[in-house]
Specification:
Elements lengths: L11 H12 L16 H15 L17 H4 L21 E3 L4 E3 L1 H10 L12 H12 L31 H11 L1 H4 L27 H11 L9 H12 L22
Antiparallel strand pairs: 1-2
Helix pairs in contact: 2-5, 4-5, 6-9, 8-9
Keywords: Heme, Iron, Metal-binding, Signal
Protein name: Cytochrome c
Pfam families: Cytochrom_C (PF00034), SoxA-TsdA_cyt-c (PF21342)
Length: about 270
């Protein structure tokens, strides 16, 4: 891959929890239900979706629709199986959902395809395409066993990132620049253009200004639970300052018509 996405990092806490319960002599419950792929073509579609999430910018099926160096798992850590950082766990239960941005009810497939336009700075794959179906099938597979709870307020699943509780006006770009140098530059480079250890966070190969992360509060909320990778130690204020600094840098503008491809769905600017 051009730029390797973030790797598995949240394994220690469950191990310590099991050890603690065992020390008390109590029965240790299984922390996660085992997931087995469905048989036949459906299982193949789920597995393809997992690969597309991990290799979005490089896989021959998805790469034509991607306009930068990000993969789905750049934001949805551990291929969406991270419990807090852009988690896919349980997401399918929230759809169909109301989307204020589109001012209509959208499906899970719609939500996936919108990410190609915004976070991937690319072209919206057609509804029903192999890419669209496979990624939606993978996310749905990660939601097995959960109760349906369609979201009437916004297109978010049950494990959505909790927003930081700060006034966006308190963000300080200068503080953010210093914090970026301390916590982020080693992987994402001082110029923000990314390396083998972390994807670009600004510039032509990063997300565009239509992406959710281009909003300081949304980026700060994600940083708070995800970064530094494997050791998220930022305070809410530090996360907000870094977000303000990162989003003050150059990145592609978002013009909806340039990202729709051949299909013209209902969408919001």
């Amino acid at each position: 891959m051009r730029r390797q996405t973030f790797h598995n990092a949240a394994l220690l806490a469950p191990i310590l929890a099991v050890a603690f319960v065992s020390a008390l002599g109590a029965e240790v419950p299984s922390s996660e239900p085992s997931r087995q792929l469905p048989p036949g073509p459906l299982g193949e579609a789920v597995e393809l979706g997992r690969r597309l999430v991990n290799e979005t910018s490089d896989h021959p099926l998805s790469a034509p629709f991607v306009g930068n160096d990000l993969n789905c798992t750049s934001c949805h850590l551990d291929d969406g199986e991270h419990p807090t950082a852009g988690s896919f766990l349980g997401v399918a239960t929230a759809y169909p959902a109301w989307s204020p941005r589109e001012n209509r009810v959208i499906t899970l497939e719609d939500r996936v395809l919108n990410c190609f336009m915004r976070s991937e700075n690319g072209i919206r794959p057609p509804n029903g395409s192999e890419v669209s179906v496979a990624i939606s099938a993978y996310i749905t597979w990660l939601s097995q066993g959960e109760s349906i709870a369609m979201n009437p307020d916004q297109p978010l699943g049950p494990n959505a990132v909790e927003p930081v509780r700060l006034d966006p006006a308190t963000a300080d770009v200068d503080r953010g620049a210093d914090l970026y140098e301390t916590h982020c530059a080693a992987c994402h480079r001082e110029d923000g253009l990314g390396s083998d250890d972390g994807p670009p966070v600004w510039g032509d190969r990063s997300y565009n200004r239509g992406a959710g992360l281009s909003q300081n509060v949304k980026l700060a909320s994600w940083l708070k639970v995800a970064m530094p990778l494997g050791e998220p130690i930022l305070t809410e204020q530090e996360a907000l300052d870094i977000a303000a600094y990162v989003n003050s840098q150059e990145r592609p503008e978002f013009v909806l018509e340039e990202h729709l491809g051949t299909q013209k769905p209902h969408a919001a600017p």
